[in-house]
């Protein structure tokens, strides 16, 4: 089983975000209000979450990772995870695939 990856990128521009779009389909732009929690769950597809504004703490399997603007988490399909937005909330993209090549 692949493990999750986290890191950071510089200069998130609109054109860079647009380049995340698949040939056909979408990415999700998500806003979580202050302290909003998504309880433990998993997905059938890979997900890459890129933080745009605010902070969010992910519980990923047995680890905890806090991300802020410009930071990301790549969750392989089937990874058990949860998240809680910070006091100010959080805005982030959800890409329904591993976009690690795009991030480098």
UniProtKB/TrEMBL annotation:
Cupin type-2 domain ranges (all copies): 33-83
Pfam families listed in its UniProt record: Cupin_2
InterPro entries from the UniProt entry: Cupin_2 (IPR013096), RmlC-like_jellyroll (IPR014710), RmlC_Cupin_sf (IPR011051)
Gene3D superfamilies: Jelly Rolls
Descriptive protein name: Cupin domain-containing protein
């Amino acid at each position: 089983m692949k493990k999750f990856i986290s890191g950071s990128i510089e200069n998130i521009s609109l054109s860079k975000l647009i380049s995340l779009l698949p040939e056909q389909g979408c990415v999700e732009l998500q806003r979580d209000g202050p302290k909003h929690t998504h309880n433990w769950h998993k997905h059938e597809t890979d997900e890459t979450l890129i933080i745009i504004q605010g902070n969010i703490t992910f519980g990923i399997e047995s680890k905890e990772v806090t991300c802020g603007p410009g930071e990301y988490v790549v969750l392989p399909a089937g990874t058990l995870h949860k998240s809680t937005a910070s006091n100010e909330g959080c805005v982030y993209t959800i890409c329904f695939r591993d976009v690690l090549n795009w991030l480098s």
